[in-house]
Amino acid sequence: MNPLPELRERLAFGALEDHPDDAAGVLERLPTAAAAELFASAESEHLARVLGRIDPAAGSAIVAALSEDRAGSLLEALSLESAAPLIRRLDPVRAEALLARQPPRRGRALRALVRFRDGTAGALMDPEVLALPVDVAADEALQRLRESPERARYNVYVVDRGQKLLGVLNLHELLQAAPRATLASLMNRDPHRVLADADRRAIVQHPGWREVTALPVVDAAGNYLGAIRYRTLRRIESELAPGGPDGGSAANALGDLFATATAGMLEAALGAPSRDAGGGSNVG
Questions:
Q1: DSSP category for residue 70
Q2: Which residue, 233, 237, 269, 235, is CA-closest to 22?
Q3: Alpha helices (runs of H) in 217-278, residue ranges in sequence order
Q4: How far apart, in whole angstroms, are the C-alpha atoms of residue 238 and residue 234?
Q5: Are the CB atoms for 225 and 218 separated by under 8 Å?
Q6: What is the mean pLDDT of each run of 10 residues along the chain (284 residues)?
Q7: In the chain, which end has fewer C-beta atoms inside a 10 angstrom radius, N or C?
Q8: Distance separating alpha carbons of residues 23 and 41, to the nearest angstrom
């Protein structure tokens, strides 16, 4: 028995797990069919870390080449902000098939994101941030927050029954309110907001960031769609900074040297040629 294929596979999977950024750079250069073959065989939790770092054009080609079952499980392991750009680039029929394989609430959230262009507020928002109807009482609002704590943030957005954004209040104000006081009587009216089609530079330059740690996103009619979180703002600022993330520092140069060594190991383990071919049938 020749142990070389097994050794190469273990080296490749070890690089995927330990150095996902470097592995992503290598996989972007592979032919789509070769990259898809690896994604069809390794553990989803390790591959999701890598897939979330691959250029979306290359990543969506890999997703398109996988079986629906495998692609669906990989997408489910990704964050919403990493999965949406991949789905957005797929053929509409394929995209809908994969969305249908997601858990219902996650599928709804992804559908809310993929309808917007890359780099816009609508594509960068968290569609899960909770908004509550204006006629709800404080005690009922707190009960809804307890039922969906993962959707709660420091601020609670207030909408009418048509989903138009009307106001905002923070959790401290809500906790101190009389139980039967309606959100209409508690909210701060006319909150800062950003239009869904605003680009990254407009998001970063929005004056609302001087006062809030999240910006609600609305459509042209003022309907609430979600919110851009502060961590997303910081990521956008890094991307727009001269030289991109890390700004070309000495530490980044050292990281490039290390990445070259890791890339060489992964390429040797995979027998990786340069990306000079695309396509490939469903794998996995």
A1: H
A2: 269
A3: 230-240, 250-270
A4: 6
A5: yes
A6: 46 64 80 84 70 88 93 91 92 95 94 94 93 95 88 89 94 93 95 96 96 94 95 92 56 42 49 46 59
A7: N
A8: 15
